[in-house]
């Protein structure tokens, strides 16, 4: 199935196979579609073996950082001396990304199954599913699915009749982008402001409530049952380019494109084909101007770069950007890049948690500079200032929100400098100089 | 202004039992803060200073601490809002798809006039919000708990009928 | 003590060895380098938010924050590399975009860490365009002695962390997000914790201010003197700040074994008595109904005459706020008598501890030297001592206020020698009145409740002819031919150490600024 469009022959639906299939939402429907077999299998497997299998599969974090999932799990203490926790990161709030939402809406049990397998592997008795507060519909669906899973003995004190306790609760966010950052997410579950924390200590050593914790993205967790069912080598075989990027990836395409939506392709898929083939290309009479392939936090690509970019972790880096969360934002030639970059900077200024100086002050300052430019009061030196501020906002703070603000600004100023200069050229001060 | 009438606690009877069950999910009471605040907001429409004090008492926190948390999360209302709260996504991906026109349509049809203001009939408050996480369905709008995809300016008037 | 594993690293070319687990910021202190910082404070959990203490660590791609990065063996740290300097310069520029440059009217100026570091490492000019408005929020009244000036706040969160982790009462918060954030307080509550005043000290800028000190003096105008708080028997180490011979502020002085970095509001705000203007400024001698001013020679001669002309019983009513030296010498002066001595200690029910610091509280016992008095044999049977007044041939009052009925008891006594700072009711019964210095006008020692002997230093001049009580009593002994003139408090302490076993191994040098505990804690054992 495809959603909201029909599946394209070049897609590889693994996670999205049942998108749009209302029958997959229920426990029964899920079991009919082969659900919970992987969990049953995993519960009888040695924990270490599960972790090894996932390591071997090459599955990497789909939330943005791309950290190998199995490796992350292996950081958890082998001997359980204190409670362990699993957090399922369903805070999906990276602008441009809307894949976890679809997983939860159509296949909530896929996520629950993935969580349960992972919880078993890392010996977590409790899993908190952190869903952003705005996702009212996914919350209701997951709530319903959880109730079914409990009713059918999948979860609870005697999960699948194995005697293992696997509890799972939804923790609803309340409007804070930064809670998608793993340490901020933990702060939020603990009933605090969603402030990211300094690392080390890493969550596997001292995480939620001070206990060993693993945090994984919905898409990452939803891929786990498939790996358990089909094996690491099957998953690894999904690879079109770099062997370090394996599996399928859900790409959320949005913006100025003919057919926006989620597309599941094999790692290494060309961005060009995604846009022109799968998504039906640009809208009538329009041409591609720019594309942000990994959610708003990664550098913007211009048309040439976009058309050369391969969609996997390494391919995006080669193109000077990042795969991030796979939110592909498309701008056609009608887009005002200065205005759009201001909107993005404003987003980060709005979402900054206020802890780190560079982020708290820098994101707001950048937004002001961009607004001023748009209002016709920009100066040429503002462009250098934006670049210099960006430099000081990159790699200097607790979490990468600040870097995320700098990324579109730097790439925007460098790649669409003429648009910025055009605003400055129309500015009053420039006019005065001309006189 | 808010002190005109005696504050009536939220967490009594069934609500209190519900919260107690939520508290059991966590190793400490503080972790139930966000759920407790949601309960207050559903019960009262917003979270007053008195309500913060009540939540603080129930969860063994201080009112100041609760306030710090409430002000962090944009979905919690520290002030009364209209009966229906309309949040329109205006972040870049929706913006390029015309979200600003949708905002204008909502302001016009609700009678709010400006962002953040409540309409004269007290029925609506309209705000711009940052990314609602449904960028492929521009422009998504959240009216109370109803998540509506692919809203265009033309659809706004019809959409609002349900909430009048 | 367990031997700790040491790690050796190089910081700006200086090799230092520090225990494993030490942060770069703390290790740098040992190399003589203070890495600029705002949110870090040794008494608080590390927040790592100001991002000011960025330094270059060889082998690490990004700059690291010194406050949260632990040292590693063989590490090379550069505090003043171009990259680190540029990063900190940028943090300062960010901090200043919303900071009003109102240093001329800011109490913190002169001791402001923002001002200091901007001067040291900041840019000469901001690139923040003047047409952008700065964040503005009105000044808020946080508590009995605390004002919050949000515009100056750099959100280092030291105050919030102090209230959360040290005072254990989260009365303030960080409210809102991004550059709209500020320190908030619930409208129904006040920042009125007994130790709340410490947030003013912790604030690195002029955002949290003491109302008491508001616009009273500039930081560079005050003289600072090490002292001991007289508010209770905890003996918090303090710095007395004086301007034009008046105490303008008390602030905690670091002593990790007594009060760490803190003092309570009671002690902090209770200093006005030290500035009293109605002081006894000259020795007075009784002449019939009148007390007549005289000079020290005549006054001391009269004391000697009284002492040597009397015998039998004597009563000493002493203050638990007098120096250990004076208490000791008072005993010495009365050494030929059968002495009934006592001090009066004010007690207030309910200690007010600072939960985050073990053994630190505003104590019930509201006198700085009650333990010293006890060690020297002055009990607290004050009523008993008052009852003995009738039979006494000599009465010595050492700066102990006597009021109402107590003073009336005294009126029937004979040969009353009164050493005091102010003329209370007791003066009416005195035959000799000797003006003495108060606790900030002399050097001396107090013994705190944990038997720690701590020195305090003279911070301002005593009025008129008033002299330290130890000097006055020493001169009495000279006049009685029982000693030599004491020129400094250390001499008086040396006599005490010689004669009282508890103090036997202590000297002023050994006490230094941090103090030391007495060898033995049983009361009054005079070895001579």
Oligomer status = heterotrimer
Form type of chain C: elongated
Question: What characterizes the major β-sheet of chain C?
Answer: 7 strands, mixed
Separation of the first and last Cα atoms of chain B: 27 Å
Instruction: Round the Cα radius of gyration of chain B to an integer and report it.
Output: 18 Å
- Any low-confidence stretches of chain C, pLDDT <50, length ≥5? none
Structural category of chain B: alpha+beta
The strand line-up of the biggest sheet of chain B is: 2-1-3-4
Strand arrangement within the widest β-sheet of chain C reads: 15-14-22-21-20-16-17
Q: How does the overall form of chain B come out from the CA principal axes? A: elongated
Indicate the proportion of strand residues of chain B.
Answer: 5-15%
Q: Can you summarize the main beta sheet of chain B?
A: 4 strands, mixed
- The number of helical elements of chain B comes to 7
Largest interface, C-beta closer than 8 angstroms, per-chain residues? A-B, 55 and 43 residues
Strand content of chain C: 15-25%
User: What is the share of helical residues of chain B?
Assistant: 40-55%
Number of helices of chain C: 14
Structural class call of chain C reads alpha+beta
N-to-C CA distance of chain C: 37 Å
> How many beta strands in the DSSP annotation of chain C?
25
Q: How would you sum up this structure, described in words?
A:
The complex is a heterotrimer of chains A (435), B (164) and C (528). With 435 residues, chain A is α/β, with parallel strands linked by helices. Chain A contains 19 helices and eleven strands. Chain A has helices at residues 27-32, 37-44, 47-57, 69-74, 99-106, 108-121, 136-151, 182-189, 218-230, 232-236, 271-278, 303-308, 313-318, 337-351, 357-377, 380-392, 401-415, 417-425, 428-434, and strands spanning 84-90, 124-131, 167-172, 213-217, 248-255, 261-266, 269-270, 288-292, 301-302, 310-311, 327-332. In chain A, the strands form three sheets. In chain A, strands 6-5-11-8-9 form a five-stranded mixed sheet. A four-stranded parallel sheet of chain A has the order 3-2-1-4, sandwiched between helices. A two-stranded antiparallel ribbon of chain A has the order 7-10. The longest helix of chain B is centred in the N-terminal third of the chain and has 12 residues, at 33-44. Chain C has 14 helices and 25 strands. Chain C is 23% helix and 21% strand. Classes of the chains: A alpha/beta (435), B alpha+beta (164), C alpha+beta (528). Chains in contact: A-B, A-C, B-C. Chain A binds chain C through residues 176, 193, 198, 349-358, 360-365, 368-369, 372, 377, 385, 389, 392, 395-398, and chain C through 46-52, 54, 61-63, 65, 68, 86-87, 90-91, 94-95, 97-98, 127-129, 131-132, 154-155, 157, 174, 176-181.
